Structure formats: structure tokens, C-alpha cells
Amino acid sequence: MTRCNLEALVPQYVRQFEAYIPSPPDDELQRMFGCSRLVRMNNNENPLGPPPAAAALLKTFDPALVSRYPSGDCRPLRAKLAEYLGVTPLQVILGNGANEVIAFVIKAFCEQGDNIVTADRTFAVYEWIARFSGVDARLVPLDDFGFDEEGLLARVDSRTKLVFICNPNNPTGTWWSKDRLVRFMERLGPNHIVVLDEAYAEFMNQPDYPDGIALMSRFPNLIVFRTFSKMYGLAGLRIGYLVGTEQVTDIVRKTAIVYSVNTLAQSAALAALGDQAFISATRSLVQDGQQMLAAQCAELKLPILTSDCNFAMIKLPFSDTLAYRLLMQQGYMVRTMTGFRFPGWIRVSMTNRDAMQGFCTALSRLIHSRTDQSLLARTYGGSL
Amino acid sequence: MELNVELIPERMPVVVAFAEAAAKNAGLAAAEATMLALSTEELFLALCSSILGAGITVRLQDRRYAADLLFQVPQPPDLRIFNITSRPDHETEAGLAEMGLFLASRACDQFSIQQLALGGWEIMLRKERNYPAATQQFQPLPSVQTWQLTTTPAPDLVKQFSTLIADSYAACQFPEEFTPPGRLLDKLASNEYGIILAQGEQGELAGGLIWHADEGRIVECFGPYLAAPAEPEQLTIALCEKVTEQFGRSNRLGLVLYAPQQPPAAAGFEATGSIVIPGGTIWTGYRMLAEEFGADAAVAAELMPFYTNWCSSMALARNIHPYHDDGETGNGLTLFATRLNRATGMARLTPLLVGRDAEAVLEEHLQLLDQEQFSAIYCTIDTGRPFDSLLVPHLLRHGFTPRMLVPWGGTGDLIHLYRAGGSQ
Questions:
Q1: Where would a tag sit more exposed on chain B, N or C end, judged by fewer CB atoms within 10 A?
Q2: Chain A contacts of B293, Cβ < 8 Å?
Q3: Is A277 exposed, middle or buried (0-12, 13-18, 19+ CB in 10 A)?
Q4: Could you give the CA distance from residue A248 to residue B160 in angstroms, rounded to a whole number?
């Protein structure tokens, strides 16, 4: 058999990149960690599921529709989103999750030699997609857990095409006010695109939190990302979107993959959009969870970062990856923050009351058992 | 620099001339370049006797602190000759070739063979540069109250750090390559090593940590080595967190820390036992970087109590398969990669192939290492390579005991076994 010379075929920037390995299915994890149930608190999912109208639609979905291609450019959904957001349908582009629209934008604006600027401790996918596309990702340290305006501006140069701002930031939950965003846009000028990732916008209940879409008439170099995965509980269907000015979306559309959003996802999103009662119920659940977790952390003397978002970050007095393994044994799956460059922190997604209480108990047990040292270290010390 | 030739004895002068020129080009002194050329000569002749007529590519890799000569061949040579104990046999031509290789391995600082992922085999000869001894001693500094961390320190600060280590810590507490200062600077320039230093407000050195990342999935960290911080525990935590942060979003799965003292739990390292080094014992810790999803592990019955205890303590999710030798056919031969540190008297054996001759090959290695007075011998077993388990009964019978577990250190987890030199 002739051997394919892969070394010669693979670009250096792909060769250096390590594939992301998603977690195995729950039953496999339960078997490996010996737990009888698994509460996922690692992906910031909505424990209420999708809004009632979307849930009803999913139950009665006509299987005959599956044999047909979906709307290639999500036309009915774009129309409804446009009406809901106060923009034109041409300003909206949907993708198979927000991750896909990140790729659309990077492909549309960047070529090798260009760079993107973002924070070092934020959602990793901007950095990943840039790097495996051969584009330099310039990472600016966070300032007091938030995006650093001065630091970002200092790293921008003539080859900077995109500045990614996660607002509120995942995983810290910090956010820029409208004034701060406007000031940043004014200082940056019109020669770079600013991507405002508002994946968690629907959770925000702050008068000063900016609506990026409303600022587009003033700053046409703004692109806003949103998703149906978080508030609307459709993570399993993979659907997200971007909004920009028509001039901007005309360009992004060239690199957007059509037919990538399936019929079920489009229909569920149509049914889910704008359910205010559902949004209120979710916000209330999140608020309860944040309060419960903050009280527990106060008791355990653990630093915690809470926000309006459906997650919180907790600093542990030992390794986060060890805590992850020990919590898995108790049936709770959290996100370790070492991969976000926050060693010793975990990110915990808010879930329903019973599960939150169970998690608080598990966390308390963990802290009390491990604050000193591991069993083996005590047993063997330095003499093993 | 690269050279393509045929493996026939007539080409030997060309290859040797290439090796010498390449070594000088990489900055080796004349004596070191000659030693590398001598090793090249012996290796080339040994390969000629093993795979006569095959094509060979010789390449120089300048590592700054060392020159590597890489010999790529398309087919496997007789691997037996690469065991360091292959006995010189003066009676036959093949024996003489093996003897040459025996000499080659002694004239260079590192000698290894590996199968390349994309086909072929690569043999590496490394000769390191010599450096002048440090001319200055570390000057004790007043206690540093506050500090800042830097990953790109000025050369002078690195030199100070090297003398701090040499003057304030026992020789067993740091790898010899961290001194003298010139060598440490060249190691850092090679990008295989990195450093994090803490500086006080006036730029004075407060302490630091050095890491070493080779091609594997684990990063080795050494330190923290501290000068005189007011809060040593806080500085230890800051240095450990910084190195964890640096590799947090990378393809590395874990960090192994070799520390003069056990750092606090808040530094994030889990205790994994201690290792004995001639002259003392150093504390080791492990920091997993990724989220654990579990793995299969093949473990010899004899190591089961050790392995299961550690898995339980470290909360590792493992499907453990006890491995029994039922007489099945394994590899045709046993091959060890051997790393020797003559300065510290430490030897490390890593089985590359384990065959039915394992016990005999192990015995030969141990005899030679005892004879050459290596006082600490380690052997590493990989739970992701079931045939490694065949070696375990022989290791235990020859005085090895399990000391340390490194999760995800190889294909699976690595178990380091230790034997004091001369013990049975």
C-alpha cells in the first residue's frame, strides 16, 4: 500500500493544533466514575428545557419533514427574528450553533497574516477557530475578571480584522456597560470589526447592559452573536445567529454554509423566540441558584463570582481538575477552569433547586475532606 | 543541514565529515565535535552491518545547548544492538559492529532510537556543549515583600537564578542542566524549557520555577526555588498557578512537579510520592490539566494494590484489566531506551519492546548499571501498553518497587518503579 505523505499535506498551524475531545455520553461517564446518576452542571444548559411552545412542537413534529431539506437560509426564522429584534431579515444569518457563525465571520474577514484580538480568559472558540485558520489570536489579560479596554486597544494594529468581546464574559460573568462599550467603539474607530458575543444576553437584568443591535446604526462595524442554546434551551439542536448591518452580512453570507441549520432546529427556534414568561421563569431559577451557591460558598469561605448569568465561578483551595473527579464520583459534573487559564477555579451552571442543593452538599463534603491533603499523602507522606 | 547517502562502508568518510562540520557549525568545541564524529562513525558502520545498502538521511538539529545528529532509515535495523548492554563480541564481524555502537553510546550524551509515526526509524546522537563554571556566587538578598512574575526575564536575572539554585539547594534537588548559568540560558533558548521568575519592586530575584516540555503529553516542572520572599507559601502558590495557567489551554494533559519541599495544596499539585535520587529525596506532585473521562488500564497482578490505591486516592476513573502472562506470543525481543545521568548516578529504563527475552535483557542492564555504579535505577511501565506488564514480575524479582504514578503520562498511566543500585 502506498503511504500518503500527510506531513507534507498538513499546514503547520493545523499540525500544531490539538483536537477538542468532547465528554463521552452520560452512561459511559456514570460507569467510569461509579455514580448512579449524573447532573450536568458544566455546559450552562437550561434545566427547564425549551419553552413550552417549542417543547410541544418537538412532540408533534411531522417525521415526513425530515426527508426534505430545510430552508437553506432559514427564511421564516430570519423574518421572525428580524421583526423581534427590529432589523431587516437580510441583517440576520443563522448557523449550526454560534460556533459556526464565529467561523463564518473569521473566514469572511481574515486571511493569513491577519489577527484577531480578544481576552485570554474567555470563550475559547474565537481563539481556536482563528488559530486553525492560520490567523494569529492576540490575547489580552483580563483586568479584574473583565475585558480590559486599554489592553485590547493596545494590541490592535493594521492587521487586526476582528475584536471579540464576550459580553457578559463566559466564564467570569463580567460585562461592559453601554457607556463603556460606546467609549471603546469610539476609540477603536471604524477600521476593525467588533464582534459582541451576547450568548447570555437574555439572562441580563441590568439597566445599563447594552443592546449591541441597537448600537449598530451608530457603529456599523458591530456584529452581534446570539444563540438559542442557553436561555432558550435548544442546545441539542444547535442553532445560533449573528446580526450585522446589511453591508456586513452581505460579506459574511459569502462564507456562510447554507442548509446547515436543520428543520427541527428552525421550527423549535421559531416557536421559542420571545417567550417572556419562560425567560422570567429561567431568570428566577438562576437567581435562586446563584443565591444558594453564594450562601454555601460564604459558609465554606470560598471566593465566588456570581452574576445574572446561569453560571458562577468558584475558587477552590486545591486543584480544580481533582475537584472535578471527586465531584464526578458524587454525580455532579462541573467545568474545570484550568482550560480557561483560571487554575483552581470551577464553573458551575445553575440548575433546578434539588440538584443545586445536592451540589452544595457535595461541594461542602469535598471541601471538608480535601482542604488538608489527600489520603495517600497523609498516609505515606514523603516516605512512599 | 542534511545529507542523503547509501549505507555502504565506502560512504563512511563523507558522513563523518558531515557530522564534524555540522557539530562545529552548531557551536560545539573541537573536542566535542570529534566525539560526535567518532559516535557517527561507529553508528554508521553498525547500520551498514545491519541494513547494508539502504538509503540513509542524516540531519543536524541545533538545539543550542546541544547538537543532535538524526539518522533516518527506511527499515528497522537489528534493534538488539541498541540495548546498551549489547555485549561487545570480538570474534565476529557483527560483534565488532555492536562493540562500535557500544562505544558510540558512550562518546555522546544521548543515544536513542524511535519508530517514526509516518514510517521509518530514527536514531539520534546528541552531544552537549561544555560551559564554563559560574564565576559568581549568589548574593543573599533582603526579604522581598511583593513581587511580579515574568516569563521572559532578562538574561542577568536567569543567571542569578542559576546561581541561587546551585548555591542554596542540594545537588539532588535540581537537574544538573540548570547550572552553570550559560547552559540554563541555552536550554531556555531552545524552547524546550521555560522559566517563571518572581521579581521584587527593585527588580531583585525572589524565586522561580523551570519547566521542561518535550514531545510527550506531560510537562515536567522543577521548583519552586525561592530566594527570600516574605511569604514563601504565597509565592509558591503564585509560581505553581502561573505554570498551570501557561499550559491550561494546550495539548498537554498534566504537569509533574519535582519540588525541594511539598507545596501547599492550594498550589494545585496532588502528592504522588517521593523519588529517591542519589544524595536525597525529592517531593513529587501531579497536576491534571484536562477533565478526566476515564480510561482502560492493563496492570500486572503484582502491581494491582499499588495502582488501585493510587487510582482511589487520585479519584481516577479506570477500567482496570489485570494482565496475566498466559504464554501468548509478544514482541520478538526486548528493547530498552536507557537514560543515564552519570553526574547524579541515576539511570532510567523505558521499555520500548517487551519480548520473551525480557528477564535476560533486564538482568544484563542491571549488571551493567551496577558495574558502572549507578545508585538509583528507575523503570517506567505504561498501563496503556499491555505487554509492559510482562516485565513486572522480573522487575519486582530484581528489587524494584513501585514509587510513583503519573496519570496520562504515556499511552496510559505511567508507573515508575525504583531500585537502589546493587539491590536484588
A1: C
A2: 21, 23-24, 28-29, 32
A3: exposed
A4: 54
Angle, in degrees to the nearest 10, between helices A353-370 and A320-329: 120
| Domains located in chain A, CATH noted | 22-49+276-371 (3.90.1150.10), 52-272 (3.40.640.10)
Q: Which ipTM was obtained for this model?
A: 0.90
Task: Tell me the chain A residues in contact with residue B319 when contact means C-beta distances shorter than 8 Å.
Answer: 32
- With CB atoms and an 8 Å threshold, state whether B315 touches A325: yes
Q: How far apart are the C-alpha atoms of A258 and B88, rounded to whole Å? A: 69
Please name which of B105, B147, B99 lies closest in space to residue B123, comparing C-alpha atoms.
B105
Among A3, A336, A384, the residue with its CB nearest the CB of B273 is A384
- Nearest CB partner across the interface for B265, out of A18, A124, A317: A317
B316 shares contact with chain A (CB less than 8 Å):
yes
Extract the C-alpha cell encoding B358. Answer: 525480557
Residue of chain B minimizing CA distance to A337:
B248
Task: Provide the number of CB pairs (under 8 Å) joining chain A to chain B.
Answer: 116
- For residue B281, count CB atoms less than 10 angstroms from its CB and return exposed for 0-12, middle for 13-18, buried for 19 or more: middle
How many Å lie between the alpha carbon of A243 and the closest alpha carbon of chain B?
30
All structural domains of chain B, each given as residue ranges with its CATH number in brackets, are 2-128 (3.30.565.10), 148-288 (3.40.630.30), 295-420 (3.40.630)
Residues in chain A closer than 8 A to B269 (CB atoms): 319
